[in-house]
Amino acid sequence: METKPNTDMSNSVGIHSPSGRRKRLVKRIITALVVLGLIGGGASLYFRGTDAQAVLYRTAEVTRGNLLVSISATGTLEPEEVVDVGAQVAGQIMSFGKDAGGKTIDYGSAVEAGMVLAQIDDSLYAAEGAQAEAQVQSSKAAVQRSVADLEQLKAKYHQAERDSARAQKLEPSGALAQSAHDAYESAYETARANVAVGEASILQAKASLAQAEAVLRRAQRNLSYCTIKSPVKGVIVDRRVNIGQTVVASLNAPSLFLIAKDLTRMQVWVAVNEADIGKIRPGQPVSFTVDAFPGESFRGEVGKVRLNASMTQNVVTYTVEIITENAGGRLLPYLTANVRFELSRRDDVFTVPITGLRWKPSPDQVVPEFRETMNNPGDKKGRAGGGQYSKTKAIGEASSGGGSRGMLWVAEGEYVRPIRVRVGLSDGANTEIEGENLSNGMKIVVGLDTNNNKASTQTTNPFVPQIRRGGGGR
Question: Which tens digits make up the pLDDT trace of 235-255?
Fold first, then answer.
């Protein structure tokens, strides 16, 4: 019987031989290295692209215009001169007067000097006036009677004088008794004394008349006070009483009407902090706005600074009076005004946001050709730019000697390029600059756009699991 060779056994022995296992191991290692290489290359490309996209700059424009350095404060519009009309007598308000148009006096009524504003009940004062008038008439009668009595006393005096003279002639002859002679002398002395009494009575009666006339004048004045009249020409700003209301005049006269003399000129009373009051001067230009006319600005000038400072919670403020024209009558009393005191002004200059002068890049963000210049202490231009960066001047301070030095940055791809400038005035948001190669609308860097960088990194990384958000649909 012929036996066939076992080919399957030989093949099985070849497969499980040591050399076969080594070959398979080498293949696996090569495959793993290729996969790792592909993963590393992809990651390198990804992170290189991410780094290129990570540097995104926030920019602002250089603008040409006007720059105003000012102090802001809040004030109240006040009439330039007001008159508080009060009552000097007590009584009930019976009626109001009429204005030039025949309408009852009310808020906003235009009045003339001497125009009747209101009438107080005058019945009691009229009675007192009548009583005082009667007393005057009585006093006048007493004066006349005293004069008549004096004439009688003078007649008796003359009679007694003649009787005394006759008695003096008869005394030597003895024809007249001594008692009769003494009686005539006594009557003469009495008559002479009575004349003096009569003259004194006249003086007393005249004094009583003068007193009665003074009481009458007082009663008449009180009676006239019952009619309230306007002391000046102006406009009724406030009417503080109604018909039927009783006013009581005691130590303080009650206020009935408030009259503004001239509303074509107004004042703004502004409370200014003690730290800023040294910058305020009479005649200084001022602009202000009111909420009643949004978007519209009004002009004025500083009139005076009141010296009676006030303190609130340890903060000292001074009241500044601002004068403004109101020919059209649009500005109403007691509106709130947002005031700007103009300290300094620059017209038609380049300005940039103050953040553009404060921002500074890291060295690797600067264009390579400028890095050595910016960091070289011996380079004059580098020192002119502050070596690194220059700070802006304090708000409101004017530049001197051509201004201080500052630096702006312009984006060039992934890098930024410096531009040296001279810094002038600042209003706290924008700063005046001067320099070469500046143009209106030029974009300067003010910071890094970190939000966009973060968003781009998160959405482009293929190895980060994507989380669905929102409406629940798939």
Answer: 999 999 999 999 987 657 788
Question: So what's the pLDDT on residue 283?
Answer: 94
The CA-atom distances, in angstroms, between 434 and each of 244, 412, 438 are 72, 22, 8
CATH architecture assigned to 70-78+261-346: Beta Barrel (2.40)
For residue 450, the tally of other CB atoms under 10 A from its CB is 11
DSSP state of 100: T
Confidence of residue 422 (pLDDT cuts 50, 70, 90): very high
In degrees, to the nearest 5, what angle opens at C-alpha 77 toward C-alphas 319 and 270?
20
- How much is the pLDDT for 42? 62
- Coil, strand or helix at 222: helix
Decide if pLDDT at 20 tops 90: no
What is the DSSP-derived secondary structure letter of residue 466? P
Domain parsing of the chain, residue ranges: 57-66+348-459, 70-78+261-346, 81-118+231-260, 124-225
Instruction: Kindly report each contact of residues 132-138 with a partner whose C-beta sits within 8 Å and lies 24 or more positions away, as own/partner.
Output: 132/212, 132/215, 132/216, 132/218, 132/219, 132/220, 133/216, 133/219, 135/212, 135/215, 135/216, 136/209, 136/212, 136/213, 136/215, 136/216, 138/212
pLDDT band at 27 (very low <50, low <70, confident <90, very high): confident
345: which 2 tokens?
């002004």
| Phi and psi angles of residue 3, each rounded to the nearest 5 degrees, phi first | -100, 135
| Torsion, Cα of 332, 104, 261, 291 (10° steps) | 0
Distance CA 168, CA 214 (A): 51
Per-residue pLDDT, 24: 76
* Whether pTM exceeds 0.70: no
Which CATH code is given to the segment(s) 81-118+231-260?
Answer: 2.40.50.100
